From TrEMBL:
The keyword Repressor does not apply. It comes from the Bacteria. Keywords: Monooxygenase, Oxidoreductase. This is 4-hydroxyphenylacetate 3-monooxygenase oxygenase component protein. GO terms for molecular function: monooxygenase activity; oxidoreductase activity, acting on the CH-CH group of donors. It comes from Escherichia coli DORA_A_5_14_21. The lineage of its organism: Bacteria, Pseudomonadati, Pseudomonadota, Gammaproteobacteria, Enterobacterales.
Amino acid sequence: TKTKHKINNRIPINTVEVDMKPEDFRASTQRPFTGEEYLKSLQDGREIYIYGERVKDVTTHPAFRNAAASVAQLYDALHKPEMQDSLCWNTDTGSGGYTHKFFRVAKSADDLRQQRDAMPTTCASNATPSLSGHA
């Protein structure tokens, strides 16, 4: 299926959906991606076009690499033992896995506070030069 997207209503991007799942790239379904697994998952044969030209690899293309690297750093933060208490919760799927607090439905006011408090921690863990557009 071909889908057309625009970023900021300026740059037309065409994509083609691929039949891949996160499990195809992740060593364990009981935990989030690592940064490396996330980047590999983006190299799945998807077709992305920008300015009419095909992007061979979104992890290295100048228009996408910094965003991809930033998300990879967010995933890596979830695996740092010193950050797990502030960023992670067990999933509510019964799998025994864990995820970022923001990706599980809050069931109480305390859950909402913990989700809110996890966001600045997540952003601080990702404060790197790649966010500013410099690789």
